[in-house]
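queue> holo job accepted (magnesium ion)
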Amino acid sequence: MHADASARGKSVSQPANLSSEQLVSLYRTMLLTRRLDEKMLVLLRQGKSFFHIGASGHEACQVAAAACLRPGHDWSYPYYRDLAFVLQLGMTAEETMLCFLARAEDPNSGGRQMPAHYGHKKLRIVSQSSPTGTQFLQATGCGLGALKEGKDEVVFVSAGEGTCAQGDFHEAINWAARERAPVIFFIEDNKYAISVPITQQLAGASVYELVRGYSGLERVQVDGTDLEASFAAMQRAVARARSGAGPSLIVADVVRLLPHSSSDDQRKYRASEELEQDRQRDPIARLERRLLEAGVLDRAALERIQRETTEKVEAAVEWADSRPHPKPETALDHLYPPSPKLTPPAAPDPEAEPVVMVDAINHALMEEMERDGSIYVFGQDVAGSKGGVFTATRGLTAKFGEERCFNAPLAESSIIGVAIGMALRGLKPVVEIQFGDYIWTAMMQLRNELAMMCYRSSGAWSCPVVVRVPVAGYIHGAPYHSQSIEGFFCHVPGLRVVLPSNAADAKGLLKAAIRGNEPVLFLEPKGLYRQGYARAPEPGPDYVLPLGLASIKRTGDDISLITYGTLVQKSLEAAQKLAEEGVEVEVIDLRTLNPLDLEAVLRSVRKTGRVVIAHEDTLTGGFGADLAALIADQAFEWLDAPIRRVAAKDVPCPYNWFLEEVVLPQTADVVAALRDLAAY
Ligand SMILES: Cc1ncc(C[n+]2csc(CCOP(=O)(O)OP(=O)(O)O)c2C)c(N)n1
Ligand SMILES: [Mg+2]
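queue> job finished
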């Protein structure tokens, strides 16, 4: 083992203190892993499942790592190659076969994910996904949570060497090292990422070299086919994390004895001599030699263990194969976790002091943080006396301390990934992405992690994260401070999308988002933050507005004008104009797009028979397209005219204010659409 002398902590070379019993027990898990891998490949050929990805060659370092953790106390984010790790931590052979055969009782995902996507609530193995590298930031968030809660828990996160090229890997190390978070980055270096060798992957062809510059990170290199050396490296990293000294990165040099997965044939890109060299380093053969030489086991004892292991695998397969598949009628379950049912509050007192939208949001955060100590606010510039570029978080650090309102690094994926990790351990992150235009670097975490966690784990895990995002234009914000983003996110099952148009709604909806268990994208039209017309008498601290209730802003019998966000005021102005012309327009503010109050829309359409949908987002693929299709589908017989849409032109929003005016929908555009429809 080679530890970095320049990093915090001492260099160690002592062998692990493993007793004979421990060695044999770890050997049993390694062998079980190998036999399961072999059996799964047989079952695959028999058409019993459709994907396999093996641990063969990685077993020694994996059992060593798991043996150093406290199951059910420490947290793990293992990757798809970690069968030996999860078995050693406590997952049973039966459970891994339920996973492989995609059965209903599989604790990993209930048959929703491919095999080897681990997750086990009781063992604190967090549900893992397919994208390489998303786990690092979540592990960091989990570690930060442990620090904030004063728990001595350690967080294990693993991946292959190829995955260390991902940005999330570096973002996670940066944040974990900055905070001295108790995270162990465990890299299983088999020199290949599918077919790509490490020389084509990483500068210096070495993970150890790659992370040299991270101050506060201890780096260790170890022969991952050597059980005892791996155990010593891991023991040291666990002790360091538990003592509060901070993160470690262990690079375990291993061999990949199987192709990348059952979809791959490594003979196509690796020389037979190289494959033979790898076989010479087989960790199981190595440990068997060691056990025999040390007299821990004799040949007969070894053979007995091998027989028992084979029998165990056969019994596990037979049992798992007898268990039921998930019922077809459960295919739509667990998209969202159960959330408290809220009843609509009484209307706010009209005599109350008026408040602008940004202050209403600020007060909602203030009141909710006061009420619930598990709420954490973070993002870029949100802390201290600045309180965010729009002041939405002003005063939170002063009131609740840096522990609960703090600045994140300038990295959006970090903000969402860390929030997910915190939420998974039971905390309530309410984070800010500074501008909707910059949310894209967090897209993987939002779409593949936050939104899918509950579904992919069959409801075992959920991420109650609220993501606040200033969006939209009319502020001369140019292409990169004007974007409307709701259309993208309404296409993501598992994510709620809220878009208020005034101060009172913003306060009530934000409170509901915070008090619920679902992941919520809370979009704040920044042009309305201080707008006079978006002001409202401030509702009290108990004003919690359930998501999914549209608001009828004006009633009318002639045309339904369905809108939300910045177009609400323009729609009201247009409706007023039409009223002067004798046409009564009903204006509906959707307030939340997911859940959608379709019933309120249909009720209005059945009355008017004519519909205009108005939103600021660009036309093509916008939310209006979907809503128009729903109305056409469910109220066709009631329609007397085509459904019209008013939206931004299909170009980015330009800076020049005359150009901006052309691109973004104006009141005159809404008026024109209404007149056109009234005359149809
Ligand atoms: C973000 C992302 N890109 C690509 C893939 C496809 N993919 C799956 S595994 C893999 C290689 C990973 O190699 P490495 O990190 O070295 O781990 P190993 O499989 O060798 O253990 C790739 C490219 C993916 N799952 N996720
Ligand atoms: Mg690899």
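queue> The pocket of magnesium ion (ligand 2) is lined by residues 160-162, 190, 192-193 (CB under 6 Å).
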